[in-house]
Amino acid sequence: MPARPDARAGWRPAPWRPLDVIVVALLPVAFGVSFYAWTAYVWQWLKPLGEPWEYIISGMWLMPAVVAPLIVRKPGAAIFAEMVASIVSVALGSQWGLDTLLSGFVQGAGAELIFGFLMYRNFGLIVAFVAGAGAGIGEALHDIPVYFPTYSGNLQFAIATLEIASGALIAGVGGWLLVRSLRRTGALQAFPSGE
Fold first, then answer.
1. For residues 104 and 82, is the Cβ–Cβ distance under 8 A?
2. For residue range 57-66, what is the model confidence (pLDDT) as tens digits?
3. For residues 186 and 115, what is the distance between their CA atoms, to the nearest angstrom?
4. Contact at 8 Å (CB) between 69 and 131?
């Protein structure tokens, strides 16, 4: 019996179209602007709670790494989108400066690994949840040694746990719900996610 065309051994992702590139470039621009507002307002409101509790909302910064792959379903979309959002955030004056770029890359790579492991063939809620957690793991792997190397092991663990949980819930579940809402409006008809 011949193998199905989509069998893992012979599966290849569809090539990037100009429309895919445009959407994955523009979508994170909107997120990059929202990052600035998120940091300036929401993040600052939670500052008085202290660490680790302010990291319960850090999943917002991971949204592009989940939303872009859910829409275009192409390899590299998570890193591409997260990097564009990071560049916009830096251009708007991110308080973390150029380190935002490294952070964005690692966060995007965390989600990219999950989609890649599944060969960019599964884009359901559970995959989005795990990809958001993957982006959160990337965030924690960056943040703990860069910003919190002198913190106690318990506090480091708490920050990492909240970053991962926030990534899974806000970026993963929230990103999946956002894409589902866009699909219902018909805005994604030109993409596999709109079928």
1. yes
2. 899 989 999 9
3. 24
4. yes
